[in-house]
Amino acid sequence: MSDNQDGGKSMASEDRELIEKLLFSAAQEQRRARRWSIFFRFLFFIWLFAAIASVAFSLKGGKPAPSEYVALIDISGPIAAGKPASADTIVTGLRRAFEDEKVKGVILRINSPGGSPVQASYVYDEVNRLKATRDDLKVYGVIADVGASAAYYMAAATDEIYADRGSVVGSIGAYMATFGFEGVMEKVGVTRRFYASGEHKSLSDPFQPEDPEIAQHLRGTVRNIHEQFIEKVKEGRGDRLKDDPEIFSGLIWTGQQALELGLVDGLGSSGYVAREVIGVEEIVDFTSKPSVVERFARQIGASAAETLGVQLGLEGPVVR
Asked: Are residues 57 and 80 in the same domain?
């Protein structure tokens, strides 16, 4: 036999050994994957059994469901569309509470410095609409650390408002803020190029000198929002408000001072109001909370909208 023949047989033998090793290794991987699959299935069924057992135990021997309770809706942080304290979120919780026959009172627990007057107006109107659907159900505002500006706007729609002695209450006013960088531009030697259609479209551009006509218009806009705010507070609080013009000056007050001015009806926490005012011990959280997927989608949408607004020059003054 020639050397070429011997070499060919040797290579063929090595190839077979390599193929056998690969097949053996693949078989081992498949067995290992099957074992892990069986293991995880086993864990899942244990978890499922434990969950079913827990539910069955709670239904059998757990605490019975209360026959009546107070609905609690948290309003925390800045009031703005797309935020946890948006009108959509608050109204969703309110509607669920008013549809539940076991609810004997509704508490809006407020801890917010304010925000959008539009969002506050939506909530204000919805509170009044829902109160008209159930004569047996009252809505109470309870201010924690702070209930100011748009947050107090919403609270004014409730039947009664409570706060702590040290709570910050009030700030019944409106403002619009922007900046003026035209002097800086001149010193640095940079020229601003701004292209817009519409005579006053550039009213919020901080790199141009203030136009007296536009400034007057903006002051009138802010004044109108303030007047709307005052009207809603007077409508909600009625004769309980003291005859003091400082109430609507934008000043803030402690809970104790707010009580003296008629901005709140009493001092106490959510637990106090549920127990002593409504007369029900049990409190159930009706705050609408988005799922993880919804929160992620909102963050992506908000980021995209913010970027688009900046690129188009739509980011102007903020009214609060």
From this structure: no
Rounded Cα gap, residues 269 and 254, in angstroms: 15
What's the confidence (pLDDT) of residue 237? 96
Neighbours of 222 (CB within 10 A): 17
Q: CA–CA separation, 117 vs 95, rounded Å? A: 21
Q: Hunting for tokens 């707010």 — which residue is that?
A: 258
Residues 35 and 160 in one domain: no
Could you report the per-residue pLDDT of 204-243, keeping only the tens digit for each?
A: 677 777 778 888 888 999 999 999 999 999 999 999 999 9
Characterize 258-290 residue by residue with b for buried, 16 or more Cβ atoms within 10 angstroms of its Cβ, and e for exposed.
bbebbbbbbbbbbeebbbebbebeebeebbbee
Tokens, residue 262 = 């008629």
* Number of structural domains the chain divides into: 2
Residue 300 is encoded by which pair of tokens?
């992506």
Using DSSP bridges, classify how beta strands 139-148 and 160-163 pair: parallel, antiparallel or unpaired: parallel
The range of the structural domain enclosing residue 229 comes to 69-178+185-319
In a domain? residue 10: no
Looking at residue 77, what DSSP letter applies?
S
* Joined tokens for residue 162: 């409570």
pLDDT grade, residue 191 (50/70/90)?
confident
The strand ranges marked E within 10-163 are 69-76, 103-112, 139-148, 160-163
The answer to whether 162 and 243 are in contact (CB under 8 A) is: no
Distance CA(315)–CA(149), nearest Å, equals 22
Last residue of a domain, one of 43, 64, 85: 64
Q: What is the largest CA-CA distance in the chain?
A: 121
Cβ of 197: how many Cβ atoms within 10 Å?
A: 5
* Identity of residue 290: P
Rounded Cα distance between 110 and 270, Å, is 10
Measured CA angle at 317 (ends 301, 198), to 5 deg: 95
Range with top average pLDDT, 44-48, 89-93, 187-191, 309-313? 89-93
